[in-house]
Write a structure and sequence with these properties.
mainly alpha
Length: 81
């Protein structure tokens, strides 16, 4: 599975949390709920999860991983003649 760019994912996760706080503060505001649900859906799609909670946990795990160093293995010495 292809994983999203970490900066993009971090920004989306930040938006999700901001929208979540807004909905908790004003639960009957349809526009806020729509933004929250849109950000939750996008997280689910990007992380390949079925629920927002699973997507958030997957995103947090992915963002906490260090990027492996991409190094080439040393070349094997040529065979002796």
């Amino acid at each position: 599975m292809l994983l999203p760019d970490k900066e993009t994912l971090a920004r989306l996760l930040s938006h999700y949390r901001a929208h979540e706080r807004a909905v908790l503060a004003q639960p009957h505001e349809p526009a806020l709920r729509r933004l929250f649900e849109d950000s939750a859906y996008t997280l689910c799609v990007l992380m390949g999860e079925r629920t927002a909670r699973e997507a958030v946990h997957a995103a947090e795990r992915y963002l906490s991983r260090n990027r492996p160093a991409h190094r080439l293995a040393p070349a094997a010495p040529p065979p002796s003649a």
